[in-house]
Protein: precorrin-2 dehydrogenase
Amino acid sequence: MPLYPLFADLAGREVLVVGGGEVAVRKIEALLHAGARVRVHARALHPTLRGWEAEGRIECAEGEFDPAWIDAAWLLVVATDDGAFNAALAAQATARRTLANVVDDARLSSFQVPAVIDRAPLQLAISSGGAAPMLARRLRERLEIELDPSLGALAGLFARHRDVIRERLPDLNRRRRWFDAVIDGAVPALLRAGRAEEAERAFAAMLDPAAIAPVGGRISLVGTGPGDPARLTLGALRAMNLADVLLVDAGVGEAVLALARKDAPREPAQPDPADCLSWVAAHARAGRHVVWLRPGDGFREPASARFAQALQGMEWPCELHAGVAADDGDAPGASRPAGA
Structure:
């Protein structure tokens, strides 16, 4: 069953942890980092936990376990090696509508703790739904290498200037284009080079009202190939992720659509091509990035090429992303498939 991804704000909120060994130490350390008030019940406490109790970082509940303790908790974490006791705690949590994580037992858990890549305030979480935690950890290891530590500083810039960004860019489409310009511009490169002050100045300069470019319409024509998401080109994926609206032809599969920007409205293409051209032009005229998806090689096939020619003759920038078939990945003019 698919899980619903959720980032919880636990600052100042109580979390009950049952168990006092090394596994509990790791879970509690992450909870304290998130600002949670941690209450621990265990028959024996790891020396680290004893130290944290003495420092006042955690509270320990003595005596026999009282199920009523769950009522005060936002989350329950169970880290004992007693399977019957764990199952009883999970049942108590379910009866009280409290989310519970039973370590290494997805069947008993109502929430999973993902593998996390921390580039504060940016966080990436990877979950296998409890099916293969080692796979999630291996992916985290790879991404830790690929994702530069400066991403946290970049996210911090956006966070500190959030109110100014919203004030100067109230239009969502214009704001999205501005974000793209910053992310693809000099600011990340300066941060990667450790030149934080220069990055701050460059960021502020891009927020100068005189430097903010007016929003303009844009059209992307995407061939989705045989329907295999792995055959989409990098350019096609980028266009789908930046779309303001999507025009979808019959035959474009759900697996491909799942990769498009989630909040971009989707409109089925009408049988009359003239209606489609009018629809695309209307959205481009309103300053939106329109992405038209067609199966196969979409807009390079003879029957459809006239649509591309008509749109490329309009006043807005119009780019074409060829559909890559399974046997023509190296064909002239085809951009490289994602992941190839």
